[in-house]
Amino acid sequence: MDINKWRIVNPAGSKRVIVTKELPGEQWLNILKSAGCRVEIFSSVELLTVEDIRKAIGSNCDGAIGQLTETWGNELFSALKSAGGRVYSNYAVGFNNIDLDSATSNGIPVGNTPGVLTETTAEMAVALTFAAARRTGESERYLRAGKYKGWLPDLFLGELLWRKTAGIIGAGRIGAAYARMMMEGHKMNVIYYDPNRNRALENYADEYSGFLMNHHEAPVTCRQSETLEELLQLADVVSIHTVLAESTHHLINAERLALMKNNAVLINTSRGPVIDEAALVDHCRRNPDFRAGLDVFEEEPALKPGLKDLENVVIVPHIASATIWTRQGMATLAASNVAAVLTGYPVWNRPDITAFLEADPPKAAPSILNAKDLELNIYIE
Predict the structure, then answer these.
(1) What are the residues facing 19 on neighbouring strands?
(2) Is the pLDDT of residue 206 over 90?
(3) Mean pLDDT taken over the chain
(4) Is 271 labeled as catalytic in the residue annotation?
């Protein structure tokens, strides 16, 4: 381990916590310092390997905060346990990079950072939707290259999404927030595909429709689709907000892309492997009016051959959660998970975690994924 790439905060702390990347803000560090932690932070932008992290854990480590770019499986959790570790927190809401069973078998509570990414990620999905539909990336490159010689009637014609249909794959918190943004802002009808019916979203659409009709405007609709195939055939925009699991790997493949409208827009701010990226490249090449907006990639940070050369695809480097408030909030939650477990606090039992971002946060761990399996104490006010 190159000690020159690690910085130490509160060196006199009695509990050693490693953090595998610099995190934004200062509040998260204050939380760990207040819990008596010596915090060792990897200050390079390089990605750490499993072996690098194992060496950083060493023979004495009480806790760790890691990243979704790292694979935390039995090798790391057993190393953490052997070093006296009692907690790990993922700096992300998703946890497909974690072998939760291995963590549980090693007795390691695993935290994550839900509740602060919802609107931020939904906003990015909206931004990608219109960037793709209105061809902003193409037109900006055209302008910067000095090709613009004046206004033309047919210059970069895009798609009008007003009163069209938005298809949502995964109608959880982020998917529902995106649906409401498209419904309210652009009067789009919504069709969603999810194993669970989102009655709250449907009721919201009904109430909003009542508001529209009171203002002499046409209502909007929102309904659950029985099949993914039906959604793909009907939607003008398809936005993916599902988790990555065995059942969702390459959920969008060549066959399902072929079901979509030739001028549809496909957005992904969830996880890269949900889309067969090679199939998407081929589909976009053969269908120039088809558009896509991607924040995540199948073999991140690598792109499948040909993807970066496609003018009908907007690509950004995994920045859907990249607002100052959200990224600092994620750091606060990750640190709060670690500090709470090391201090002996119970686990928060409510979906709203905003109290942890305030001046006097609850004495609890905001989100421990395997709390039930480890029979951890639950917060009682």
Answers:
(1) 41, 65
(2) yes
(3) 96
(4) yes
Of the candidates 271, 283, 291, 327, the residue annotated as catalytic is: 271
pLDDT digits over 355-371, tens only?
999 989 999 999 999 99
Contacts of 121 (CB under 8 A, 6+ apart): 174, 177, 269, 320, 321
In the CATH scheme, what is the code of domain 3-116+323-357?
3.40.50.720
Separation CA 30–CA 224 (nearest Å) = 45
Q: Interior CA angle at 325 toward 319 and 330, to 5°?
A: 75
Name residue 84's amino acid.
G
Altogether, the residues listed in the chain come to a count of 381
Contacts of 360 (CB under 8 A, 6+ apart): none
The candidate with the shortest Cα–Cα distance to 320, out of 116, 121, 91, 69, is 121
pLDDT at 271 over 90: yes
What's the confidence (pLDDT) of residue 33?
97
pLDDT tens digits, 317-331: 999 999 999 999 999
Give the active site residue among 75, 123, 202, 300.
Answer: 300
- Which pLDDT tens digit goes with each residue over 207-236? 999 999 999 999 999 999 999 999 999 999
Model confidence at 381: pLDDT above 80: no
Is the domain spanning 118-315 CATH 3.40.50.300? The answer is no
d(CA 315, CA 313): 6
Is residue 300 part of the annotated active site? The answer reads yes
CATH 3.40.50.720 placement within the chain: 3-116+323-357, 118-315
CB 132 within 8 A of CB 314: yes
| d(C-alpha 65, C-alpha 199), whole Å | 36
**Gap between the Cα atoms of 167 and 156, Å rounded:** 25
| 331-357 per-position pLDDT tens digit | 999 999 999 999 999 999 888 999 999
241 assigned to active site: no
CA pair distance 189, 183, nearest whole angstrom:
6
Residue 152 region by backbone torsions, left for phi larger than 0, else alpha for psi between -120 and 50, else beta: beta
